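Obj.: predict assembly geometry.
Materials: sequence records (below).
Method: joint structure prediction, all chains together.
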Amino acid sequence: MYAVTGNVAAPPSTRRGTELALVLLAVVLTLTAFTSVSAAESSALPSGLLTDGLGFTAVAVLTHLVVRRLAPYADPVLLPAAIALNGLGLVVIHRLDLAYAASAKAAGQAPGHADAPLQLVWTVIGILAFVAVLLIVKDHTRLQGLTYTAMAVGLVLLVLPALLPASHSTVNGARIWIRFGGFSFQPGELAKLALEVFFAGYLVRKRELLALAGRKVLGVTLPRGRDLGPVLAAWAASLLVLTRESDLGSSLLFFGIFVAMLYIATERKSWLLIGLVLFLAGSLIAYRYVGHVHERVQIWLHAFNPHYVDGQSYQLVQGLFGQATGGIFGTGLGQGRPDLVPFANTDFIASTIGEELGLVGIMAVLTLYLLITMRGLRAAIGTRDDFGKLLAGGLAFGFALQVFVQVGGVTRLIPLTGLTLPSMSYGGSSLISSWILLALLIRISDAGRRPAPGAATGPVDESATMVVRQ
Amino acid sequence: MNHALRMVAAAALVMFVALLVNSNILQVGEASSLRANPHDVRVLYSEYSHQRGPILVGGKEIAKSVATNDSLKYLRTYPGGDVYAPVTGFYSLALSDSALEQAEDPILAGTDDRLFLNRISDEITGRTPKGGSVVTTLNAKAQQAAYDGLKASGHPGAAVAIDPSTGAILAMVSYPSYDPSVLSTHNSRADTQAYHRLLRDPDNPLLNRAINQTYPPGSTFKVVTTAAALSSGKYTPTTLVPAPNALSLPQTSHQLTNFAGETCGPGGQITLTVALTVSCNTAYGGIGLKLGAAALSRQAKLFGFGQAPKIPLQVSASHFSDNATGPNVAFSAIGQYDDSVSPLQMAMVASGIANDGIVMKPYLVAQTRAPNASVLTTAHPKELDRAVSSQVAHELTTMMEQVVAASDGTGRAAAISGVQVAAKTGTAQNATGQQSHAWFISFAPAAQPKLAVAVIVEHGGQGGVAAAPIARSVMCAVLGCS
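Observations (raw structure tokens):
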């Protein structure tokens, strides 16, 4: 991994030059992929290469300049990795647009609306949100003051779909939307961020209590019964999301983030144990009593069963076939048939990458996600305040967990849930929340690497050089 | 908190490693077995992306792929239509393929190992790979004549014609039929709807009655009984057999009577030849009782009963019950117990007698060819069994000629001037209240047979009336009479 070696004498480098170079690399990667789609489609350069290319480059460089101005000490890898993922996602969505248009033409139908231009708009909005967060949140510790506001906002966003009539909240069986007219939004994506702020603020205040009180049983210090309240509440809320909104993915994600943050706050392994027990109990209850969870598990276990293969597991199985077709190097962008997989540009974008860019491509994408995760956790370790540590830790782990649950589902490592792939999947809510998350990580990493006012310049923190202790 | 954060980082690393390992397993380890899965629609799309080879009758294409301008680049069409549907089957996006489209898929799709070199050279020269072609053994005139005849009857039915000396199938018709084109469009919903419409049709047009439906053989089975009788050494064509108006049966008060209660001949005794000529039930009931079920069963098996060959379409086995006892043996001997036969099987019985007693293995594919028209495989005729001795075959042929030639023969309707036709009629009773199935089996010219034919007209009434003219027109189509 990349390591900052603290130079005792010189002031800490801002590393903006590195960031710019990496941003340009991400732009080149995106434009190469864009060109390669066109080459496969019509053996020609894309008609919009010049305008789209210049536009994308300008947006990327401008974003970099904003970071240079507003968070000069930020980690230099976070932004380029996010631009690469967002750019590659755009190219893949564009590539699927072309495939859908071709099939519509073949079937003698008018082509549906293209998703890529809209995703481009969402990208710009996402980046504006990113800039806005950096502008408004000059000091992330001030978010701690919003702990209970964040809770209220998060809970409202979370339960809103469940309260709306199904016609305004349900798409393909999952009740996780707010729909009015042509506008639709997944509030859970933003709820996730708000709840992470709440968890961080809440746990920072309660950490002493949750960490110390308790009695030792079989060598493990268990918390007092009355301190189990918060974790039980989180657990109950997760189950509620699951049963009321049929959203297995979010349910898993919320509980996972909460337990991880509880552990980070208290450093107490017994919380992990309790979390695990509650998770297993919840899974068992859900498997036995929640119809669609049972079904998801059955589809996962028996994906190739003739009973499912042309029906309920069709999407999963066709996605697996696509990835198998891709093999090591992939079919090449524009040369596979990822459009045969339903929802290839949202839920199954990972299988599209596996098919057309191969094992090499999916591993590169996973490595970018790993990079963001590890850089986020490094920012957590590097920052000085507990709230920042907790928030960055929760954001980074939540990000990793979402990628794990999403890609794991598509590759049949675990049952399929309805999460989107951060920064890549088609959809405004997901993209905007990914950019906000990135802004928060950048803000916290900036705080960690910024020399303390008046303090002698020196190594920020020896431990920051290594994320995983060997 | 830093310690916990490092633990969380380690956990995240484990999750990513799990994803990476899993992707490796999926895209490398399991890739080839996944790609071989028949549910992978990609395979189908790539099959459609190059031209599938044609199915031919003579020089004529009865199934071919034509270029389209949609995303599936070739559309399968069936110039052979309803007439050839039981042979070609269909090649569908939504449904699993059938008949030759399924059985010869590796050749037609171009994936057969024997086409390996072709594929390599296509790859090198940049030509789009094509599938090979399948040349059937069918005779276009015979096939058309059989189809027209069955259609004119207005009843469901089937007809099969075989070249007795080789086993090559000259005609294989099932009526009513369907147009495979409607199941092979590029619109899988339309395919599925058409398929369900055909499935709901009470006349079951998707069923290939020639090889996949079995019927009671009725009096055509008397040819098998006669073969068993002559082979036993206890009978000759001139042996006198009892032919009462009603045959008393053992262990029951029931009696076996003749068709419409007729008398087979004066004096209550007739020769075996006359018994076959007039299709005398009481005489054959008696012969069956004397020979026993085991002898009849043995003879039936020598003609191919009990086997389910692939031609390469899967044929349903014909069945002769060898556990018939008491009075049922008499019914078995006239094809009215629980025996059931396919039209192909009865054509094999006729062709075995026509071919000096030797039954040839039936086959439908004469040749397979590479896309460049070089021959990949040529069918080699194979003997299935010797059903009867050469002498018995000759005796039976002479007897069967009488069925057509004699003034009281039941098969006079199949007579062709200048050609000696050997035949046997059948009128198989089935469900009560329904007309009998009309059967006719024949071969011609009797001295040097060019083809053997079996025809069934479901609920068509008497074989000599409803089925014989169809068999005659098939024979004429091949032999060239008018």
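Conclusions so far: Residues 2-29 of chain B form the longest helix (28 residues).
To do: check interface contacts against the pulldown list.
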